[in-house]
Amino acid sequence: MSLSRRNFVIATSVAAGGSMVLSACSSGGGGGNSTSNGAGTHTYTGHVTVGTAQDSQGPAPEIQGAVKGGNINGLSPSDFSHLDPQRIYFAWNSALALLYVRCLTGYKIAPDGSQKLVGDLATDTGTMSNGGKTWTFTLKDGLKWEDGSDLTVEDVRHGIERGFASFTTEGAQYLQTALTGSADFRSVYKGPYDGKHLEGVVIDSAKKTITFNLKTAQPQLNFILAMHSYGAVPVKHDTKEKYDKDPVSCGPYKLAAHAPDKSLKMARNPHWDPKTDPIRNAYPDSFSFEFGVESLPESDRLIADSGNDQYTIMAYNGVPAERIQKVLTTPALKQRTINGLLTGLYYYAINCKRITDPKVRQALNYAWPLEQIRRIYGGPSAGDYATSVLSPDILGYAHQDVFGKLKKPQGDTAKAKALLKEAGKLGQTIVYTYPQGRESAYEKTKIVIANALKEAGFNPVIKPVDSTSYYDQVQQINNQFDVMWFGWSPDWPSGYSVIQPLFDGATIANGSNNVSQLNVPWINQAIKQNALITDPAKAGDAWAALDEKIMTQEAPIIPETFQRRFYLHGSKVGGALFDPNFSAFVLYKLYVKA
Amino acid sequence: MIRFLIRRTLGAAVILLIISAITFFLFYVAPRDPARVACGKVCTPQTLNLVRHNLGIADPIPVQYWHWLEGIFVGRDYSSFGHCSAPCLGYSFQSQTPVLSLILDRFPTTIGLSIGAAVVFVIFGVGTGMIAAVKQGKALDKIASSASLIGSSLQIYIVGIIAMYYLSDQWHLVTRPNDHAGFTQDPAAWFGGLLLPWLVLAIIFTANYTRMTRSQLVETLSEDYVRTARAKGLSRRTVFFRFAWRGAMAPIVTIFGIDLGTLLGGAIITEQTFGLHGIGALSIKAVRDNDLPMLLGVILVAAAAIVVFNIIVDAIYAVIDPRVRLA
After folding, report:
1. What CATH homologous superfamily does A345-564 map to?
2. Model-level pTM?
3. Name one GO biological process term (chain B) (predicted).
4. Which pick of A249, A311, B4, B117 has the fewest CB atoms within 10 Å?
């Protein structure tokens, strides 16, 4: 579910390259600053809940007017980097994986954009006991692989165990760490290839159950298991490293052809039973993808909407700035767009090791010129002003605005100056950095940022870093930057998945995502406590409260925008829906219009 | 001639060796870690070490370079993917394919694009230049000169996008550029798919050839030996083609050799603009992915193309200009 490092760079180019996304169709997500001039073809609520066993039963609700058959074509500048589920982490790869990989749990997305966590391979979202240290799932009946053989509980376990193998370094590590109690989990277990099984995973083939006995409690394991890194892999057909080229499907489509970096084709898997699947619809007979198409020619093709392009979607890149106005002002084109809010956040990390006084960090928050920055990105279409760490898509989100950014999005430099004076830090130098060379927008935002900082009594020093090494440099603990452009997309839509990686002092190291290097005992303690709350709704409330407390007392980051995405599709494509988790079309809900 | 070729080939091998070494060592100078790509979102030191081992970049840099060189001559064994037989240019872990097979897979597109465009721009460029030279100072000359000036100031990524938008998407006059069909599978589809890139490349390259042919011919036509030939009573046509044209062609062949070599090394912007999958697109991917084996492979191909075409140009010189003798 994550955009992860590389994808975040790509995602950045999508969001910051200008008006990549239509203005405001967040209708109840609580973004607080959305307008009502809706755009695109769907409204969006961004509501996350945990579903019941009933919700986990297939088939997925029919889409009115949808018909079976035809081919949907996707255009993208680059190929999927991995097809092996255990090596999938990027959102882009997950968007495709939904067609052929199934996990114990998954997200059922409603037409209004709200999401429910449901059992996918499992009959429900699992049974937790022992304070979150034990989880049990039961497999559904009728699950098959693409060759017609049964998908067994051994296959589910095999997928989990492959996550320990030496070649699956790209995938998620949450479950491995929880099962072994160690971040160095490969020293405890080396994967299933020497015939040994993982101690903490117990299966009962007759009852079709799989039980996880964790060393550390993880009340959100059912969310974690929805990540494709924990997808099932058939024991009999596991080809280790080569599986990445030729994965075996248990979803509605299977890999039919793949010319790396050129094209990929998915064809119907006849052994997939829709009755087992509450999530996927699978109307088209096939999907084809064409790689190497840059965003501008891609948009032009979709705007022209001729021939086969009528059945085509933007598979990954959004509409580029050069074509936004045309699309927005042409009703026929606007009809063919989708727009949505992601679970992620763009922000500026304040280096708390260098800027030690919380008052100075609060002053930075007051001074930051959100309005001017967003105008450079393309206005409201680029995203909603972020006034909290957690986005409206996160379970338990509660609107808050500690620094009054909605009232004064242009920045309150007077208040910032007063705070700075109070702290005795007038004239404080702020070394600001951003990735240079990928997006021209940052060359403009640095100017409005520097102006605002000067006006608030700071002494801004701009030190850009080449985009190719940006993350490597700002994630060094001894870096010489005070404020660093950054972004985060959580691995599942919960407060834990945002606050723990960004603010847990225990994670501070070179390469850590706690770029602020925030290490405050009460926050570390609160993260530990919240992580143990077993009731999802209560946990959601606790994370939202912690978000507000962190921002009020420590202000370790300057939230900027909750990202929006804006995609175009051909006139014969129906069922277009935005996936907030993977920032793409929900492929399995698309259909070819008659 | 043979001695010349042997000497230049050996020289070329040394140049390629130096280029590969520079690329190899420069790659590691950049403050980025190729292992991070495969290390996941939460990258622990243990995982990073494991990835380095998997990618074969745990050894000291000179040792890695030695292994790479060794692979070219005797092949290499990879623990996870088996044997890569000589000449092994390495294994691209990002694409999970041997580098050489990817390059060979992409080369037909690049060859088709380069040769086709070269045919168009040489015929049009040299032809227009000749007409301009003959009609020196007249309206035709002025039109040709101005058109070439405009052409040479255009950029592929602008003309290409506009041409695709109007000619393919709006007016449907030409097929949208693609490389779906190979020359041997479906020559008509192959031709259609590459027509627009050829024409756009030609608009930009033609300009150089027009201007150069014109100025060379104008200069040669005023040379003493041409005037002598005319004075001896040879026809205008004979003087033009046998004396003036031949003399004027030498510098054009030089430029053509370098242009073709560069195109064969990967027309990066052209391939990117038209969404073609040639060596140029491969180089961009290699840089994006921090994929050293792939980067080395494409740089070597690009360098080899330029070096080889330089040798060919030098050899052709001797044929078209009798004053040049190769030793």
Report:
1. Dipeptide-binding Protein; Domain 3 (3.10.105.10)
2. 0.84
3. transmembrane transport
4. B4
